[in-house]
Give the backbone structure.
Amino acid sequence: MTAADRVVGIDDVRVAAGRLSGVAIRTPVMRSDLLDELCGCRVHLKAEMFQRTGSFKFRGAYNAVVSLTPEQQAAGVVTYSSGNHGQALACAATLLGVAATVVMPADAPTMKVDAVRRLGAEVVTYDRTSADRAGIAQQIVAERGGTLIPPYDHDDVIAGQGTVALELLEQVPGLDALMVPVGGGGLIAGCATAAKALAPGIEVIGVEPAAMPRLARSLDAGRPVGVPFVPTVADALQTVAPGERTFTINARLVDTMVGVADVAMVDAVVILSDLVKVACEPSGAAALAGLLTSGAPLQGLDVGVVLSGANLGLVDFVARRQQLLDATAARSSSMGRT
Amino acid sequence: MTAADRVVGIDDVRVAAGRLSGVAIRTPVMRSDLLDELCGCRVHLKAEMFQRTGSFKFRGAYNAVVSLTPEQQAAGVVTYSSGNHGQALACAATLLGVAATVVMPADAPTMKVDAVRRLGAEVVTYDRTSADRAGIAQQIVAERGGTLIPPYDHDDVIAGQGTVALELLEQVPGLDALMVPVGGGGLIAGCATAAKALAPGIEVIGVEPAAMPRLARSLDAGRPVGVPFVPTVADALQTVAPGERTFTINARLVDTMVGVADVAMVDAVVILSDLVKVACEPSGAAALAGLLTSGAPLQGLDVGVVLSGANLGLVDFVARRQQLLDATAARSSSMGRT
């Protein structure tokens, strides 16, 4: 087996957990009797909105930056991100005294762009529909030096994200299933690695926007395949293809994929606010949306659900929800006319 | 000193804490660097939205019901409440196997009415603008028997609410000031009792809707005085006069009163969601609204802020916020025309 063939294992996740100890927040697991009733199972919510920078992304970013040599750290880090990874890398770099540059889409929520700048990183924007974000980041590295830390397709990032499931299974040892939102697949790759090592019988379920079923299609095809870009309310999950390294892991360890509609994610955000009293962004609530809409195949079981982040402001959330309601109303009224 | 003169003391709060141990949730104290920057001081948020039934009210209700004799418990309990105390009493009574009846205004949020029913209590509704809720509750007691547990003007209720500050000062011993939302004054009476006993130099600051400054007026007058009913976004703080027992305590222990506008409470809810990732209702965010709008007299200090509850659904909150924005826009446009 060559170095390129070696994939992230439980030992890498444990090493990451050691590095993150005392730096990352050991986020709480939250419960609600009413939510259990709604879902027909015992739901254990891993609340990563309380993580540093408001999402799980800090875990992978910090693990990647702290793994660099002092020379690499001195040259700085660069990434591209719809926001959460950008904030996470900016925060991790600042904590470690490393300079960071973040390439972000021009239409990313203001709150996310501002947060990255405030955390001390330089922001370079691009047009999401035309430009290639990875290409822009690589060009910056070529011109200025530094190390590219991509948002998901990177072993240290994957290992860091795996600490979410490592912690959750320490907090709730008897989980029957684990539901995880899927964008590029880094979170679920790390979580599946940890979960299957600690609880071999656990069912690992990925949840992605129904409009962009990259991982489901790729698992069917047996190789990473892309899907067209479709704007969804889940701006943190809008990747068009799985990563190569994440796909290698996910093809082996992910048991089931579920697709969720925008309205299901928005509803899950409202339910989390009302019943659990926590803020969550639609992308972060995707796994719960999957559980709420999947017709209760997990009835009576203990189900871990990763709430991955909360970096969409409440006012922006309200506006997006209203757009979605208006669009739904317009569709049904035009259907009524035919 | 007769029994009627005796007011709640720190020993009563400690006894309540013992009864609540293992039953009530020891809620977390939450922090945010960005919130500290906004407020100009170190803000320690006591997160009572994570309390049983979504507000601090469970503490007082349980302490009152558990203090009844077995004969009294067998006859049931009755109360009137805009919602949070009703849910709390329903929950406490159910836990203790006691029947509960709750008198609620007909315009209370659906979520609150449903929650009280689901917790096993009988709900009797009345018209908030015409009928006397306390009178209705007393009539029920006269007809059916049972004990009236009022929402705030009751020693065991006050002592129970005091455990909020008792816990907070154990969690953060060096507080310089404590800010507490004020409705009927039970929460601040209990909290001031505990806080002044544990930290005699602490400044206790009450925050009430600017439109209904009952406690501020009463403190000025040296006796409980009423104010006209004015609908505010803070439906849990819409009492027209302080309680007699709460006033006796608050006249002695409350240092400062602050009034907050509806829009300040709504903004505080948004800030809590965006920065702290927690859901809060406008009434529950009143103390933070007071801190955010009081012009930083507490600069550089350690300030405890009680977030008292989160039982307004997100969809209802969004609707009320929109009404407020529309009303503000209509006012400034009509001012522009004159």
